[in-house]
Amino acid sequence: MTGSHIDTVRTGGKYDGNLGVLAGLEVIQTCQENNIIPERPLAVAFFTNEEGARFAPDMFGSLVFVGGMDVETALDTVGIDGARVGDELERIGYNGATPCPAHAPHAFVELHIEQGPVLEQQGIVIGAVTGVQGISWQEVTIAGQSNHAGTTPMALRHDPAYAAANIAVFLRDLATRYGGNQVCTVGKIDLHPNLINVVPAKAVLTLDIRNTEEALLQKAEAEVLEHLRQLESSEGISITTRQLARFEPVVFDERIVSLIESLAIENNHSVMRLPSGAGHDAQMLARVCPTAMIFVPSVDGISHNPAEHTDDHDLEAGANLLLHTMLTLCALETIA
Amino acid sequence: MTGSHIDTVRTGGKYDGNLGVLAGLEVIQTCQENNIIPERPLAVAFFTNEEGARFAPDMFGSLVFVGGMDVETALDTVGIDGARVGDELERIGYNGATPCPAHAPHAFVELHIEQGPVLEQQGIVIGAVTGVQGISWQEVTIAGQSNHAGTTPMALRHDPAYAAANIAVFLRDLATRYGGNQVCTVGKIDLHPNLINVVPAKAVLTLDIRNTEEALLQKAEAEVLEHLRQLESSEGISITTRQLARFEPVVFDERIVSLIESLAIENNHSVMRLPSGAGHDAQMLARVCPTAMIFVPSVDGISHNPAEHTDDHDLEAGANLLLHTMLTLCALETIA
Q: Are A145 and B159 in contact (CB under 8 A)?
């Protein structure tokens, strides 16, 4: 019953933008067409609001499913357009009656494009995902003294733009020092008034710090905080921080990660282990059952962009590996 | 005929926002009220478009007066609202017929608030302005690779936000190394798309570099350019620069600067020499006649802001010193 006995899933570019769900449906279809009766029931999961672009927080559908949030709280969430989740689900006919938290599955596997450049750069088709990086998001607001750029000697400045730049450089240095899976990003900087000849009065910037190790994430956060305190003192500025998001790293089930690796090799696909830098519903399911993910390459690592693309043969390899992984997991009495 | 024989100018806060012109008119009024006939004619100058907020470049009124720009070119200048200078001067009745360049005056002195914090910090009432800093304005555009902040390892990034921060920190270090009158400012940074979890595709920032020594200004510009070339190479990004403004430093007339110093002391005012970090019409007049400026303190160094303020006794000290300086200059056969 392991995959090599059955037909492969047929793809052809039709997964663009929804690989996990469509490949899941093809797994079911392939079982039906081949008269395969899995030893445990197979289901495809569609979770509401994975991205979180309209309703915060992201991934609350799977969070409610596993009991991490009350269903009422989720339904009462109001989006950036003022709409209420419950009303919108009612309107589109998706306000189901199944109680939450629901029964925990025997196992959960999510197929996804990598959304990063690692597999492509390494020339590898399958990523056996070891877990999801922990995420620390902070907004940093720096208040200084607005002044004339020509008439204010350097020693008398309290310059939030310099402080913002200093913090961004500090974060890069921190990521280099830590190495490994540590990533740090300053993607947003807003200066006020943002004029060529004015030392700004205020700067607001965001810090995105991620690591697969919770201890290293906490160490990075503490180092950043200490650096901000030093900058306040040396520059004569005031710095406040606001936590925008904080998720601990998630470690996937070693048994399933190994299974994905060995099935990939059995099916003649190159494979490597790697963590996910982005959040996925699988990290919520990992709270209640053995869970892992399969990645396939993203061309140029581009994602959340119309230019996002994965080659057909990689999509097909991923869908086939999902099929083989699910059928193997269905046949296992327990996942040790 | 030097100042100590005549009444002081009477002020009382009424100079706010227009010290030079109003004090100039009071100098004339004081001469008339005291039956003083200066040995040379005294005139108060009002130059169009000193600030340049609507029509570029700034200070073109005085530039035309001294022959640095054709009057036709100035009149044909179109502003940010689409209006033409000549039409607007006609409309308000200020399109005069005096040919330009006009006759050079015997001497020119401009009274102004400092617009910076130096006099107030030093507890000094009168600034004898030695010249105007040279200005180099550049816009720097950095093109990199937009990527997911979680899934893109540090080593695979081409991050324009980091490069912008690196440049701002480099500029601060350069100003510290040079010391003296060197000032450097990054007042404007725009990231695209400017989102917390996206390594930006592009950054645009401005560099404002000023020094009283042209040789040091050129050295700073060359160092910055070399640093940008190194960053392009080390970060795998593309950097282009556009010059937005470039003025050489202006040195005021030593004879008049000394006169302002000695008259300040004679009138029991504390005085110090300092350069102007901002541009003024006096720097255009310095091309054709002996020129200098008098500064009075700006509270907190604030300028171009509704909170701009100079204490009444400082306004009065400046206006009186202007009176004494002008009467002395009128009495001098030549300014050696």
A: no
Question: Of B95, B107, B140, which is closest to residue B335 (Cα–Cα)?
Answer: B107
Closest residue in A to B147 (Cα) is A302
Distance between CA atoms of residues A187 and A120, nearest Å: 24
* Peptide bond before residue A57 is cis, with ω within 30 degrees of 0: yes
Contact with chain B for residue A301, Cβ under 8 A: yes
Q: Can you tell me the distance from the alpha carbon of A259 to that of A240, in angstroms, rounded to the nearest whole number?
A: 46
For B144-284, where are the E strands, in sequence order? 147-148, 183-185, 189-192, 198-199, 202-211, 238-247, 250-251, 271-276
Q: Are B336 and B266 in contact (CB under 8 A)?
A: no
Report the C-alpha gap between B305 and B310 in whole angstroms.
13
Mean pLDDT of all residues in B41-45: 93
CA distance B25 to chain A (A): 27
CA of B23: how far to CAs of B6, B28, B33, B87, B262, in Å? 16, 9, 15, 30, 20
In terms of phi and psi (left: phi > 0; alpha: psi -120 to 50; beta: otherwise), the region of A17 is left
Percent of chain B at pLDDT > 90 equals: 81
8 Å CB contact of B116 and A186? no
Distances from the Cα of A202 to the Cα of A147, A161, A164, B37, B139, angstroms: 11, 8, 10, 53, 21
CA-to-CA distance for B4 and B23, rounded, in angstroms?
18
Paired with A240 in beta bridges are A141
Record the tokens describing residue B126, joined without a space: 């009168």
Average pLDDT, chain A: 91
User: Distances from the Cα of B39 to the Cαs of B28, B30, B43, B106, B334, in angstroms?
Assistant: 13, 15, 13, 12, 12
**B205 and chain A in contact, CB less than 8 A:** no
Note the residue count of chain A.
336
Q: ipTM of the assembly?
A: 0.82
pLDDT-derived band at A80, boundaries 50, 70, 90: confident
Strand-pair category, A198-199 with A250-251: unpaired
DSSP state, B136?
E
Secondary structure of residue B80 in the 3-state scheme: coil
Record: contact A195-B188, CB cut-off 8 A: yes
